[in-house]
Each structure stands twice: as C-alpha cells, then as structure tokens.
Amino acid sequence: MVLRAPLGLVAVGLLAAVGCAGPPERIGAMPGHRMGAMPGPGMEMPGHAMPAGAHVHLPYLSRQAVAERYRFRIETDPPVLKAGEAARLHLFILDARGRPVETLQVHHERLAHLLVVSENLEEFHHLHAEDEGPLTPEARREGRFSVPITLRWGGRYLLSLDAVDGGVGIHQDLDLRVEGPPQPATRWNLGRTRTAETLTLRLGTNPFAVEAQGVTVGILDVEADGAPVTDLVPYLGALAHLAVFREGASASAHNHAGGPEFAPFQGAVAIPGYAGPKLYFEHQFAEAGRYRVFTQLQRGKTVVTVPFDLEVAPRSLGER
User: Residue 279 pairs with which residues in a beta bridge?
Assistant: First the structure.
C-alpha cells in the first residue's frame, strides 16, 4: 500500500512492505549518507546552516559517543499516548550536563528529522517541528522539538532522531509506548517493484543478493505510465529520502538518493537540473535480517512514500 501526502501534511501512515539499513554501530557510519545542498548564511532558518555545496559525505558519531555527549527526553501531551487519539510529541535534545543544545545545524532544510515507525513496520511518520512554522524562542531555549502525531495501534513505536551538530551527524533511537489494540503481524513483500498511482518504482541492488557489512549500491528507476520520469522535485533537499528499519524496529538509519553524483562509479558527476529517472544510493547493513526501506520522493506538489523490503544475508565466509 502506498500513500501520497500533500506537502502540508507532516505525517504519513502506511501499511506495506520494504527494507535497507545504516551505520556500523546503530546501523552505521553510512558510506552512502550524503547531504543535499544546504541553505546559505542568508536564509531565514533557525540554527546554523551547513556550508553550501553540492553533496557532502556526512560522518556520524558512534552510538557510544552520542551517549557520552547528549541526553534525550521525550514528553507527550497527553502524558499517556492512546491509539487513534491526536497527541503531541516533545523531544528535548540536551548536552551531557542537561543543557539545551543550541548548535544544531540545518540539514535537508530542517534542524531535526523525527522518524516514527511502529514495531511491526506497518506505520511510518517523517516529522519536523518546523513544518508548523519557525521554532519559537522558548522552544530554542529549551532544545525542544514538538510535532503532532496520531498513532494507529498500541504497543511499542520507535522514534529515530537524525540531526547535525558541528558538521557531524547524530542518530538516536528512542522508544514510545502506546495504549491500544495490538499491532498486526508484519506483511513482508520482497518484490522489487512498487506502484503508486501513475508512478512505478523499481529497486535494483548491486549485489542483487544483499549481504550484511558490505556496501550495497542501490538504483531506483522511476516511471510514469511506462515512460521515464524526469521531473522529480527535491524533497527536503534530496531527490529521495530513505528511512531504513530492521525487523522489529530494532535498528534504523536515514539515507538519501540522488543523481549520478551519488553513484559510486568512476567518472560519475553531477548533472545540473537532474530530476530522474534513475536515483542512486549506497548503504551498509550491519546485521543480517529483514529490513524495510520507506522511500520518499516528490513529483509536482505531492510527496509519495513507497516501502521496499529486503532480505539481508549474513556476510559470506569468503569475505574479508
């Protein structure tokens, strides 16, 4: 099942299938995690903008380093989350001494990306506090990022934070508990083709049989009515966002896909104005298992979210 969301909508709920993953420790220091063009110094965005530039490999702090340098707190309104009821999440990002972090940098047009997924991976939300407008002075002083949300089921949800501080990525997973009916079993679909209205997306990987700890090169082919799509619009600074979750919402990563400059091929260079049909990315899966990759891209004024599932095999014994 694929959902299309108008640009003003901050949450997308889905029931569907797909998978991929990230850095070594948390799902990893993703070799393929790249930043899109960043806002320049004159842009009216809270926080500090990353330096302008085409695409930048983004180093990530290890899980241990994040634990040593930061503290995270979640508050909700109402205090008890209940399935089907509107609520607000308040995420506080603090330093090791409990002081609000005021040095986050705008990346992909937002200071903090909040990815929320149900434990069964059947419901997904990509949220940002700035979707409702600029952060208030009070929110900045508190290091608080607040978003509206309505969750479908009870049980465990995973909230994954993606942010940048001092040019280094921060990725942190936090649990949410919700009262309500139990989540149904995950509906896996290992097919490599998805259709969303007139759009057809095909996922290719090299190698085709994905293995843990190796670098996987992904190619997304986008078509509409049988013809290549060449009019994609950057969504939050990238032609495609990839939210990657391991089965049971046991690990997560946030990656991006783009034009030829994202391809790890010799001589691959950026093409000005490139808008499809092929989108490239690299990713490293730390562990074997099943993964779901929620792929988000924009055409016209509509953001489309498409899930892919991948079976990741253990690393081959012959690999070093």
Answer: 220
CA distances from 318 to 205, 314, 315 (A): 20, 11, 8
C-alpha to C-alpha distances, 203 to 122, 150, 306, 316, nearest whole angstrom: 20, 30, 11, 23
User: CA 78 to CA 17: how far, in whole Å?
Assistant: 31
Residue 196 pLDDT class (50, 70, 90 cuts): confident
Record the tokens describing residue 263, joined without a space.
């391809």
CB 49 within 8 A of CB 40: yes
- Would you call 122 helix, strand, or coil by DSSP? coil
- Cα–Cα distances (Å) from 269 to 52, 260, 287, in that order, read 18, 6, 31
Helices of type H across the chain: 63-69, 137-142
Tens of pLDDT, residue by residue over 117-139, are 999 999 999 999 999 999 999 99
Q: Which two tokens stand for residue 72?
A: 């995270």
pTM: 0.82
